[in-house]
Design a protein that fits this description.
The chain has 561 residues and is α+β, with helices and mostly antiparallel strands. The chain is globular and about 90 Å long. The N and C termini lie far apart (108 Å).
């Protein structure tokens, strides 16, 4: 009888059951508010990271949409179809070897006739996918794989325009992100797909290699890094300065020495913090993020610094990033807190088959990263260290470095056109103005990061090389001789726009230096002083370039009707 009574007492009405659940929910909410977010999980880290990666991808595809047709299109400065045809000729057709030389989707499409449209479709698709990742703060493996394949397809045919370390860095970052996401779900907090620790450590290994590689290449490279004098030159001679560069260049020398020492600390000492305890890892990751922010403020280095921030984010866990998120009920932060409480109390849902499969994938991924890191580590410890190098065609694990040597003088290639006789000393030459690189001494340096003008960037390299080493410069001159619409869209000002094209185009070589703050020239609005060094590209005409264009396999520019 007492048993039956006890049973009756234990029976609860629906209302009592509801109240009990509400009390349990209240207790859980109180605990969430009390304990906050625990350390050691990376749900919020994944959201912040994916939004950042989506943003960098978006910028990269936006640059591609605006510039690729003019740079690598059918009538571009370095046509991609010529590049692919050259590979096919070398490998004996479209085969595994040609795919290894240039892993691009264009092999499977009619790039011979539809290259311009295909480049635009790739850019638009990339913008669509990356924009969705930014807005949602989440992605699945299919979206991230698509972004990686699309951008790889551009880098593989980008030739000189895509030959810099940040392209490989974005591809490596994008490859790991595939395994950061669930297979299908787009939920920001996919309950059954916790953030892979193999991927988190893969990103920590990436930021470690980036910074250590940059530090070692400096110590093994230019003497000025060891003399602590490199920063005396950097702000004036970097590829694309901004207005802040102008003022930083004129800081006292003791400040430049401090900057150089700080650079060595950030690149050679701080990366080791990432491999230590959580507290040290948080400090190390924060140092790297702040360092990249300083570089963003002081120059226009494309999206290099932005993509370098991403792996450093993976040094920060949910507890350290919680301040960025709302704590309201059903927010992502609230859901993460609920998951942490369930795990602490042993109420986590049972593992599914997919969880076991993902564990196997993570083990395989970890083994792949270790194997592909062998030549990278060998390169890091080598006295003949190479920077920004890939050891396999997919660029999954690469070696990095930046500014191993510092240019001590800034020189610029200035394009000019004329209607007159180029041999006449009194003939009037009109100057072309590029989007961001120095030209007109009174024009304020631009601010464009993370956007990137690829032509301006390569013009910086061309200035301390020769036009023979940069045949695209001759192609650019040929296009300027006909006021080519595509070429004109790559620069800020064509002095012959809307008029008859010039009869001759040449390039002159100038040395540029900043004006002194407060000097007469600066008060008159000049940011730069320049002095002519000599001729860079002799005056050329359409007729004189005819044979060269044919030899290079480039179509002859047509005068407008």
């Amino acid at each position: 009888m007492s048993t039956a009574a006890g049973t009756r007492r234990r029976r609860m009405t629906p209302r009592q059951d509801s109240e009990d659940k509400q009390n349990t929910g209240n207790t859980m909410r109180e605990r969430q508010q009390k304990i906050g977010l625990q350390t050691g999980t990376y749900w919020l880290t994944r959201i912040v990271f994916l939004r950042g990666l989506g943003f960098v991808y978006f910028v990269a595809f936006l640059v591609a949409l605006h510039q690729n047709k003019q740079l690598i299109g059918l009538n571009g400065l370095l046509p991609a179809q010529n590049h692919l045809n050259s590979i096919k000729s070398h490998t004996g057709g479209m085969n595994q070897q040609s795919l290894g030389h240039a892993p691009t989707l264009l092999w499977f499409l009619d790039y011979q006739h539809n290259l311009d449209a295909l480049l635009e479709y790739i850019a638009y698709a990339g913008l669509l996918f990356s924009g969705a990742v930014v807005v949602m703060g989440s992605a699945n493996m299919f979206v991230m794989t698509s972004l990686w394949l699309l951008y790889h397809s551009l880098v593989s045919v980008g030739q000189r325009w895509y030959s810099f370390g940040w392209e490989s860095q974005l591809l490596e970052t994008g490859f790991l992100a595939i395994f950061l996401c669930p297979l299908f779900s787009f939920q920001p907090v996919p309950r059954h797909t916790p953030t892979s620790m193999v991927v988190i450590w893969g990103y920590r290994w990436l930021i470690f290699r980036i910074m250590i590689g940059a530090g070692l290449i400096k110590m093994r490279g230019d003497q000025c890094w060891r003399d602590l004098t490199c920063m005396n030159y950097h702000y004036e001679t970097q590829p694309v300065p901004n207005p802040v560069s102008y003022y930083l260049h004129q800081s006292p020398e003791i400040f430049h020495k401090f900057e150089t020492l700080a650079n060595h600390f950030v690149e050679l000492v701080a990366p080791w913090f990432i491999l230590l305890t959580r507290r040290m890892r948080l400090i190390g990751g924060t140092i790297q993020i702040l360092f990249q922010v300083v570089l963003i403020i002081s120059g226009n280095l494309s999206f290099l610094n932005w993509v370098t921030i991403l792996p450093a984010i993976c040094c920060l866990d949910d507890a350290s990033l919680g301040w960025m998120f709302s704590a309201r009920r059903n927010s992502v932060k609230w859901k993460v807190s609920q998951i942490q409480i369930e795990q602490e109390e042993g109420h986590a849902p049972p593992l599914r088959l997919g969880n076991y499969i993902r564990r196997l994938v993570n083990v395989a991924l970890g083994g792949l990263l270790v194997y592909l890191s062998i030549p990278v580590v060998q390169n890091l410890v080598s006295s003949r260290q190479a920077m920004n190098t890939s050891f396999e065609p997919l660029r999954i694990v690469n070696t990095y470095g930046a500014f191993g040597s510092i240019t001590k003088e800034r020189t610029e290639v200035i394009f000019q056109g004329t209607y007159g006789n180029p041999d006449d000393p009194g003939v009037k030459w009109r100057e072309y103005e590029f989007n961001c690189k120095p030209g007109n001494v009174s024009r304020r340096p631009c601010v464009i990061s993370p956007y990137h003008y690829r032509l301006d960037w390569l013009m910086w390299f061309a200035a301390f090389q020769s036009y023979q080493y940069n045949n695209w410069l001759v192609h650019l001159a040929a296009k300027l001789l006909v006021n080519d619409e595509g070429a004109s869209s790559l620069i800020a000002h064509n002095p012959f726009q809307g008029q008859e094209p010039p009869k001759f185009v040449r390039a002159e070589h100038y040395r540029y230096t900043y004006t002194k703050i407060g000097s007469k020239a600066a008060k008159n609005g000049a940011w730069w002083k320049r002095k002519r060094i000599g001729n860079y590209l002799p005056a050329v005409s359409l007729q004189s370039l005819k044979d060269y264009m044919k030899h290079m396999g480039w179509p002859q520019p047509r005068l407008p009707k």
